[in-house]
C-alpha cells in the first residue's frame, strides 16, 4: 500500500504533470481553499489535540500557513525561473544561468506541535518547485492528522500529492522507499533514524530539529519588554514550540526584577488562574506530561508549578536557583517550564552557550548594542532575535532552520522553494569563436597569456 502510494507519485512526477506552473499554482490555491473551507474543523482539531484556542489556531497554524502559501503563489514565477549569473572572461562569449529543476518525489514528515504549518509549508515549497509529494502528519496530533487524511485526497491531484497517516511502522515503511528529498521536522533521535535511512539511497535531507534555545538577559535590558516577550514565547502553545526560550541566563543584578516582570505578564495574559484561561494550551500526551512534571523538582518554583494530570495541564512556570546539572537542564523542555540561571557577565553567558550543542534559536535582550553584537557574533545558533523572541522565524525573508544538533537546511519564503529544487548550473558557449589558446600544444607564450586568466 505505502509502496504503491510512492510508485504512483513517482509515475506522476515522471509523466511531467507536476512541472507546469499552472499545475503548481492550482495545487497551492487548492491548499489555501482547503484551509479556508475547513478553518473551523482545523481549529476544533487543534483544540482537541493541544487545547489551543481558535485565535492561536489561526495565528500560528491555519492563517500562518495561508500567508506563506499566498506569498509562494505571488512569487512562483520569479522563484522558479532561470537565474542569470556572471560569465568569466575565459568562457566568453557565453551566458551562465542557474536553472531550477524539481528534485522528483519528496517525503515530508511533520511533528505534532504546530501540526498544520509544519506539514503544509514544506509541502507547499515542494509543490512550488514542481515535485510530487508524500506527506506524513504526526500521529500524536491525531485529530489534525485524521482531518488532513480526509481532506488532502479531496483537494489535491491525488496521483502526485498523497498523504500517509500513521506512526513509527508506517514512517519506517516510508523511509524504506526511495525519495529524492526527505524533509523531517521533529526530534534529533528520529532525525538520526531519518538520515540513516536516507543514506541508503543517497537522498538529501532537511532536518528541522530542536534543542535548548537560550535567552540571555543583560543588566542593560528593558526588563518590562523582555519579561513580556519571554513570557509570550515560552507559554504560547504551552511551551511546545521548537523556538521557545528553553532557559534564561539572566544577569544576577536584574534576575529578581525579570521574574517579577514575567509574573506580571503571565497574569496579564492568562489571569490569576491560567487553568481557566481559554488562551492557555495543554500538554500533547500523558508521556510528555509525566516527563515535564518530573522537571518541576529542579531549583525552586518562583511562578506557577501547579499541575493537573487529568487535563494534562502544567501552569506557566518559572524555576529559579537552577543549576546546570539539574534535570530541567539536561534535555529540551518543550513545555511551559522556564528555568532561570544567573550569570555575572555576558562573557559567562556566552561561555555557557558555547559549551553546549548549537541551539535552534537564541535570544538576547540588551539596550547596550555592543552586548547584542557580541552575543550574536560569538555564538552559533539556527537563528537569533535580538530584543525579542520567535519573530526571526515568522517572516518569509529570513530562512528558518538549525545548525549542528538543531538541524540542517532551511525553509520559509524563497528558501522554502529552493530547498526542493536543483539550481542546475548551465553555461552556454558560442561557436562563433574558438580561441586556440587553451588547447595543447602549449607554448611559453600561450602559457604566459593563460596565466593572466587562471
Ligand atoms: P513527533 O513525535 O510527532 O515526531 C515527529 C515525526 O517523526 C512524526 O511524524 C512521527 O510519526 C515520526 N517518528 C517518530 N518516531 C519515529 C521513528 N522511530 N521512526 C520514524 N519516524 C518516527 O514529534 P517530536 O519529535 O516529539 O517533536 C518535537 C521535537 O521537534 C522537538 O525537539 C522540537 O524542538 C522539534 N521541532 C522542531 C521544529 C523546527 O522547525 N525546527 C518544529 C517543531 C518541532
From TrEMBL:
The protein's name: Unannotated protein
PANTHER family: ALDEHYDE DEHYDROGENASE, ALDEHYDE DEHYDROGENASE TYPE III, ISOFORM Q
Signal peptide residue numbers: none
Alphabetic keyword roster: NAD, Oxidoreductase
Sequence similarity: Belongs to the aldehyde dehydrogenase family.
Keyword Membrane found: no
InterPro entries: Ald_DH/histidinol_DH, Ald_DH_C, Ald_DH_CS_CYS, Ald_DH_CS_GLU, Ald_DH_N, Aldehyde_DH_dom, Aldehyde_DH_NAD(P)
GO annotation, cellular component aspect: cytoplasm
UniProt-listed PROSITE patterns: ALDEHYDE_DEHYDR_CYS, ALDEHYDE_DEHYDR_GLU
Domain Aldehyde dehydrogenase: 3-424
Record GO biological process: aldehyde metabolic process
Alphabetized GO MF terms: aldehyde dehydrogenase (NAD+) activity
